[in-house]
């Protein structure tokens, strides 16, 4: 199996590359990434000499480049993660979200259709369903009601992927996952931002009243779900993935401070995010039933491990904060792939 992972130098993508090399040792993993601010070759440290992983510096919006990669590596299946992923950035500057998330996905779908790729997994988000009230959970049949430019662009990408299945018969599976946490997450997202700020003795900015709820899933459990969706998902179907670990932001931030032995006085309530979704929760029954997927990490243990990882790897996040990581230009002795 030759699998193309797009966005494999980001948070989930780099964890997925490692997961694939460990759990599917006979697969070849081609990792196409543009290395935006969110892409970091240091997330793949230790894989330099692994011939099963090939890094290609490329853009999902570059159709000719996509053709070269699909043909040159005889790609059988695609796990499409490359995206602009941060809601706050999409509020400050939506355009790149439409370019990468919508147009980039369409270019990739078209290239896969022409090259006869056997399976396309569109890695999406629970945010396409919008916000929940105090009870209930998103199923795959929940209406699509995205709130932010980020989630609207992901919704557009999902619909294009499903349209390529319906119209052209491309073998597409869509996964929609809740909030991930784990190692190598860019410290603009809630958990790493709070850990890093606490370690630096800086204020922890909690948006609004801090009562917004997210449903947390360990990134390795997400990776397991993506591989199962690739192997077992039915074409044209959507699968929700979620950890069953709903937490209010404020409670989560207090838990991180407790884990680090830092005072709650570091918490600073700040102006709320525009259009801020109040609550997400996933009903993963279909993924459990059809894919045999089940998370293996409890939230308390997974969060503790994750906080420790950031404590033990200051060199990783210090280089991210200083921008030094952007000077890392080669991954393998072969350099950037063709
Ligand atoms: P991330 O921002 O950490 O990484 C995104 C990666 O995509 C980076 O390596 C970046 O360089 C790359 N990229 C961006 N534009 C590109 C382009 N034009 N061409 C090629 N590569 C490009 O994101 P993440 O948190 O790892 O999320 C990965 C995917 O999973 C996204 O599609 C996101 O919507 C989805 N998702 C994320 C979460 C979460 O909690 N983080 C939850 C559900 C779904
Ligand atoms: O639900 C899945 C989504 O989860 C993914 O599709 C997105 O790519 C990913 O970024 C994430 O989106 P969120 O907006 O939920 O994640 P974020 O970490 O930005 O924020 C989580 C919650 O914490 C949200 O309610 C906003 C709040 N927050 C966030 C930051 C960065 C704060 O209160 N303070 C902060 O500094």
UniProtKB/TrEMBL annotation:
Residue ranges of domain NAD(P)-binding in the record: 4-305
Co-factor(s): NAD(+)
Coiled-coil features, chain-numbered ranges: none
BP terms from Gene Ontology: nucleotide-sugar metabolic process
Short name of one Pfam family: GDP_Man_Dehyd
One function term, GO molecular function aspect: dTDP-glucose 4,6-dehydratase activity
Top-level enzyme category: lyase
Enzyme Commission number(s) from the entry: 4.2.1.46
Organism domain of life: Bacteria
UniProt catalytic activity: dTDP-alpha-D-glucose = dTDP-4-dehydro-6-deoxy-alpha-D-glucose + H2O
Keywords assigned by UniProt, alphabetized: Lyase, NAD
InterPro entries: dTDP_Gluc_deHydtase (IPR005888), NAD(P)-bd_dom (IPR016040), NAD(P)-bd_dom_sf (IPR036291)
Entry similarity comment: Belongs to the NAD(P)-dependent epimerase/dehydratase family. dTDP-glucose dehydratase subfamily.
NCBIfam families cross-referenced by the UniProt entry: dTDP_gluc_dehyt (TIGR01181)
PANTHER family given in the database record: DTDP-D-GLUCOSE 4,6-DEHYDRATASE-RELATED (PTHR43000)
The protein, known as: dTDP-glucose 4,6-dehydratase
């Amino acid at each position: 199996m030759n699998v193309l992972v797009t966005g494999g130098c980001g948070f989930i993508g780099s964890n997925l590359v490692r997961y694939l090399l460990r759990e599917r040792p006979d697969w070849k993993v081609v990792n196409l990434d543009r290395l935006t601010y969110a892409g970091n070759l240091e997330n793949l440290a230790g894989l330099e000499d692994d011939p099963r992983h090939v890094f290609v510096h490329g853009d999902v919006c570059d159709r000719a480049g996509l053709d070269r990669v699909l043909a040159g590596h005889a790609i059988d299946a695609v796990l499409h993660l490359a995206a602009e992923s941060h809601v706050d950035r999409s509020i400050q500057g939506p355009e790149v979200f439409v370019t990468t998330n919508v147009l980039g996905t369409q270019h990739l779908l078209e290239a896969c259709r022409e090259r006869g790729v056997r399976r396309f997994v569109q890695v999406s988000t629970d945010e396409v369903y919008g916000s929940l009230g105090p009870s209930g959970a998103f199923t795959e049949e929940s209406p699509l009601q995205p709130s932010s430019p980020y989630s609207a662009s992901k919704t557009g990408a999902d619909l294009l992927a499903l349209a390529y299945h319906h119209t052209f018969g491309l073998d597409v599976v869509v996964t929609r996952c809740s909030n991930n946490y784990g190692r190598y997450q860019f410290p603009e997202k809630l958990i790493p931002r709070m850990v890093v700020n606490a370690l630096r003795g800086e204020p922890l900015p909690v948006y609004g009243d801090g009562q917004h709820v997210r449903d947390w899933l360990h990134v390795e459990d997400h990776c397991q779900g993506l591989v199962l969706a690739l192997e077992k998902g039915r074409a044209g179907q959507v699968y929700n993935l979620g950890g069953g670990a709903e937490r209010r932001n404020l409670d989560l931030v207090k838990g991180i401070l407790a884990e680090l032995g830092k005072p709650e006085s570091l918490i600073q309530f700040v102006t709320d995010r525009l259009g801020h979704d109040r609550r997400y929760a996933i009903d993963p029954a279909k993924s459990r039933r059809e894919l045999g997927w089940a998370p293996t990490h409890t939230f308390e243990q997974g969060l503790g491990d994750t906080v420790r990882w950031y404590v033990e790897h200051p060199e990783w996040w210090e280089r991210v904060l200083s921008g030094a990581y952007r000077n890392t230009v080669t991954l393998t002795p072969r350099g950037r792939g063709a």
